[in-house]
Design a protein that fits this description.
Radius of gyration: 17 Å
Order of helices and strands: EEEHEEHEHHHHEHEHEEH
Strand order of the largest sheet: 6-7-8-3-9-10
Structural class: alpha/beta
Helix content: 25-40%
Largest sheet: 6 strands, mixed
Number of strands: 10
Shape: globular
Length: about 230
């Protein structure tokens, strides 16, 4: 479904990503791991079109993306839950969800009901202003807003950031449920063990370069060796 080859991208004259490759099959999930500044967020921005690509290719279902603007990539089925949630704080929960459906001709009420099944607290706070939600509820809303676009690929940037362990567990339970339903996931996460438990394959970045990749068990073992050696 998604293929990245020889990707170079950055900000201004600064190259952040250097010769990145990545492949993701439909219905599978991959984890993109690495320390702060490794290039994980930059990779997601390059895929969603929020950052121009210097060279290389990004293909989604066989279609070259690098020259397409963000809204066209969204129409193809790519949804991006950004780091820090980026909800609309002055809008209600319902209005935030409607913003996620903006690329559709009209919101799909069945999708909204599915989101409420996944995140019952959002239904309870349907008319509440989003800026007054807790951090965990805002993360749920950010994921729900992305799901409203009926994506084929859901990219999440640090979904566990700032959340209590219990809420981290709830968020990853929802992601596991979405995966079982066949949604393709690309997860950027510093909580490596949690992400590896969910995903089929993992990549590790270091200073904008691909450090290692492999099956979750192999990557976890090699990361432990690196940290303990």
């Amino acid at each position: 479904m998604l293929r990245i080859e020889h990707l170079k991208a950055g900000y201004g004259q600064g190259i952040i990503l250097d010769d990145i490759h990545l492949s993701l099959d439909q219905g599978h999930s991959i984890a993109l791991l690495g320390a702060n500044g490794a290039g994980k967020t930059t990779t997601l921005k390059a895929i969603s079109g929020l950052l121009p690509v210097c060279s290389g290719r990004i293909e989604f279902e066989g279609k070259e993306l690098t020259q397409l603007p963000p809204h066209q990539r969204a129409h193809l089925g790519i949804a991006h839950v950004p780091e820090g949630r980026r909800i609309f704080p002055d809008l209600t929960v319902h209005e935030n969800l409607l913003m996620g459906a903006a690329i559709l001709k009209e919101p799909d009420q069945a999708v909204e009901q599915k989101i409420f099944e996944l995140f019952p607290r959002l239904k309870e706070r349907y008319r509440q202003v989003a800026g007054t939600l807790s951090g965990g509820e805002q993360q749920m809303l950010a994921i729900g807003r992305a799901l409203m676009s009926k994506p084929r690929l859901l990219m999440l940037d640090e979904p566990s950031m700032g959340l209590a362990p219990k809420l981290v567990g709830e968020v990853f339970e929802v992601l596991a449920a979405l995966q079982k339903e066949g949604l393709t996931l690309l997860i950027v996460e510093q909580y490596a063990k949690k992400a590896l438990s969910l995903c089929h394959y993992a990549y590790v970045l270091n200073r904008g370069k691909m450090l290692l990749e492999g099956q979750p068990e192999e990557v976890e073992s090699r990361l432990q060796e690196a940290y303990l050696s």
